[in-house]
Each structure stands twice: as structure tokens, then as C-alpha cells.
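1st attempt posting a full record on here, be nice pls
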Amino acid sequence: MNRRNALKNIGLTLGYTAVLPSALSILQSCKTETEIWTPQFFSVDEGVVIQNLVDLMLPTTKNSPGALEVNVPEFIDLYALKVYDAEKAKKYKEEIQSIMNEIAIPQTGVADLKKEDYDIVLSKYLKASKEEQKQFVQTKNIVFQALIDLRNQAIWAFKNSEEIGENVLAYDPIPGIQKGCISVNEATGGKAWSL
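the predicted structure (as C-alpha cells):
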């Protein structure tokens, strides 16, 4: 390897190291009020549907805030806008549109949908039996895949939010000594570690 290529590779490595924190900063920058949020990647109607689906997937509990409280829909919107290339963005829009088509949207629009309308779709696909899910996969059901992708993205955004990472999961900003043979209950009180 010549010296020029070695220096170039070192420079690229430093560049990749600098990009990772900026990707996570997208999540931390989502601090809007959900009532005034205007989607940038999705249409307003798609944003309303995503908010309601994500709220049902990750609701507020007595032990943790819900997905809406940590701005998960805003993160999903910004992530799609800033990270996806044209091909991935087009595919993701098609997936979201398939969900929109599956929900029985009244003539008056998405504002008149009820929680039950969203729950019907989630139950049909995400609470389906193993055999039904296998059938969805074999037939390449786009709604099933879209809901799986949305759920996975919502959970990832939720677990990586500052509020959840510092106040719900086990968090140690300056790790101490390594203790190898202790249980999770003993180490963190049963909580998963925050990244």
C-alpha cells in the first residue's frame, strides 16, 4: 500500500466516525409539539396515520413515556428524508401508501378515523397467527411488510431517544469496571442497557 492511499483511508475512517453521531443527532433534534408537527417526507395525511399507528404500537405506560412523547413519528419522517436514497424513499412511500389503502379512510379524511380503525389493521397483520404471517411473507404482502418495517423503525427510534436512554433504560455515561458474571437484575435492576 502506498502512503497516499493509507492517508486517504485514515481520512475516510475519521469521516465515518464523525457521521455516526450526526445520524443519532437527528433523533435528538426531534423536539416539536406533536399537534403542530408538519411532516417533511410524508404527506400530512400519512403523518397522521403514522402518528396513530406508532401511538398504538408504543403507548404511554405508567413506567415509560409513549412514542409520541419522545417524537418517534418526527424522527421517522426526518430519517426517511435525510437518509434514504431515491430508490429506498420511493419504496418506503409505496409501503406507507399500502397502509393508507388498507385502512378504511372515510370520505371526510383521516381526521375522522378512530382508534379502532387503526387497531383493526394492526390486529389483522401484527397479531396474525404464525401460519397467517407465513402466508403474508410468501405472497409478499406489502401491507404486512410495511407494518413490520414501521414497527421496527419505531422501536429503534424509541429505544435510542434521549428520554428513554437516560431515564427508562439502564444508563451509565461513564462506565466503571467490568463485572462479567453477574445477572442483569443485579447489574441494572432488570433494565436493558442504553446505548
